[in-house]
Amino acid sequence: MTTTVILVVGTIVLLTAVYISWRAGRLDRLHIRLETAQAALDAALLRRSAVCLELAGSRLLDPATSLVLAAAAHEARTAGPDEREHAESDLSRTLRAVVDQERFREKVHAPELLEELDSAVAKVVYSRRFYNTAVGVTRVAQRRWLARTLRLAGHTDYPLFFEIDDAPPAALAAE
Amino acid sequence: MRIGIVCPYLWDVPGGVQAHVRDLAEALIEDGHRVSVIAPASDDAPLPAYVVSAGRAVPVPYNGSVARLTFGFLSANRVRKWIREGRFDVLHVHEPAVPSIGVLACWVARGPIVATFHASYQRSRAMSVAAPMLQSALEKITGRIAVSDAARKTLVEHLGGDAVLIPNGVTVGRYAEAEPLPGWGPDGGVIGFLGRMDEPRKGLPVLLEAFAKLAPERPGLRLMVAGPGDADDVYARVPRDLHDRVGLLGLVSEADKVRAYHSVDIFCAPNLGGESFGIVLTEAMSAGAPILASDIPAFRRVLGDGQAGALFATGDAAALAREAARMLDDQALRAKLSAEARLAVRKYDWSTVARDVLRVYETVVGAPVSVEDDPL
């Protein structure tokens, strides 16, 4: 009789342990994925402001446009964590104003630079989608009862979505 | 870049996803990348050099149509071996929510994984039931692509999260020129259909009903049907005296498919829905076939609201017959639709699409790790 009880209790404890360790492992994988996505987003944003600065300094634009673009790119690059979403959105808006000028493509003869800009803008859109998807999944997993009670997330911060206006200029849009 | 692509459906049967994978792979190879595709294939099927067989496929009813899928431990091992030997920088899985080697690949791999979602459905019981089981495999996906707004909506509703939208491409040049099939048009009276005959969503019965209405008054009218399926089922839906005016080509080769597009006066796509993009439609457009399609949202958008092809109310055989009669009677209208179609299809060319997909790869690859098999 007692052996049966011990066996049953032992099995339950073992199964619970396996389950908890599996859940912890899953959360760990999600955190790694989130970090990778964040690094990719960071790289994409930095690359976009770098290409914008290059375009601004290329003497292909008129001085006023150059100045506007350079200022926005500089703001985006140096913004602190709290102002970053704002500054990046401003850069998107400035970029639209610059590229969607009339006859921009005719005036700016730099196919390689424009291709690079096009690519940098698209990658911001892509990496932000991927990052926000990762944030969503991680949040749900962290909020689970088991994860909260046993502190499976450890000291990891509750992840935040990155919300900016990243609509590309009409002249660069894929279609 | 070393790219591994996983196609869940049988390679040697034509289909939207298979064609997508083939064209994407070829566009990437053209661009100088090293690409390997793994797909289910019949034992004796001739495969291009870049395709590796994942074994035979079993026909299974799935999500409203019969799909040929590959699953099981043996297949999982094949996929694992392919991943280990391929040493890919990025793994690109198509339709990872379909129970075939796509989900197996997510299961056995780790590293940068991109997934493309093709299908769209209203509310799929299969997907709802499977979502929790697929969860841990699908969570490994770093970047998600949807081929249409409908596919993206399906993804968001069933699995949560978001995806970037990159529409299907078409290799316009491959379809532009071809000799018509012997014995067929365009002679002013050929209506063509391409797709599985036994799949209700493709809408062949609607076209057959319309044909039965039109044919008695138009002695020169013929119907050409290309695609796999049971011939008797088709003939059963057509009056006996019209049987010799319905040509069933069965499963056609790629080359014959292109020739078929050039052999018709009207190319009809009577789909009832479920089509997330009109890959068949864009192929026919590249060939300059005058198009008559049901007005499901995807077709309406591809055809520019009727600018590049005529539209009729979905599922309405009378409306189909009326529009077809109008097109058959008006040579100038057909010529105009043909020219508009060739123009409208350019923005769907593969070179544009492959460039966007490559940008997604570059976004997820970031860190210097490659795809490995996951010991679990």
Brief summary:
The complex is a heterodimer of chains A (175) and B (376). By secondary structure, chain A is mostly helical.
Write a structural description.
Chain A: This is Membrane protein. Chain A: Keywords: Membrane, Transmembrane, Transmembrane helix. Chain A: The chain crosses the membrane at residues 6-24. The complex is a heterodimer of chains A (175) and B (376). With 175 residues, chain A is mainly alpha-helical. Chain A has one domain: de novo design (two linked rop proteins) (Up-down Bundle). Chain A is built from 6 helices and no strands. The longest helix of chain B is centred in the C-terminal third of the chain and has 16 residues, at 350-365. In chain B, 51% of the residues are buried. In chain B, strands 3-2-1-6-8-9-10 form a 7-stranded parallel β-sheet, with helices on both faces. Chain B has 376 residues and is α/β, with parallel strands linked by helices. The A-B interface holds A 26, 29-30, 33, 36-37, 39-40, 43-44, 119, 122-123, 125-127, 129-130, 132-134, 136-137, 140, 174-175 and B 136, 139-140, 142-144, 160-164, 166-167, 347, 352, 356, 359-360, 362-364, 366-367.
